Known about the structure:
mainly alpha, about 10% strand, disordered C terminus, Nucleotidyltransferase, domain 5
Amino acid sequence: MDFGTAIVPSRNPTQPAERLGEILKLSSPSTIVIRKERWQHLLAQPETEPMIAGLLDEAERRQIEIRLLPKATSDSSFRALGCETKAEVSALLAKLFPELVWQLPPIRRPWNTEHPRQSVFDAIALGFVYWQNETEPITDFEVSINLADEQD
Length: 152
């Protein structure tokens, strides 16, 4: 959390497993949580197949569980806590985790782009909701079917 988001420069874009391995080594997660809609969007794009395969390989090699979290679950969880916007969610997370206060992005105006620190709060919100709710696991069978469908 102290360093925000990590970007690993691409030495060879054909080796996503190596790049993902570097990121996973930095963070050492026990679980990878992905927004379900984002996962489905990635599966629909043929150019992301090496990245998906690399993620699945690295997660399996490192024994990291991958879980999908629907956006509706996240939205309803924060609505129940009185939050409607990303700014309100970020403020709530900063109240729950005071060590985040200094990272709180400024309130976004419609004509402004999203602040770079917002991605940190989006990730924390996803993790927070994950621990509050059941999530859908990704199975090798489901992924192989989806990847096969995309190739047809």
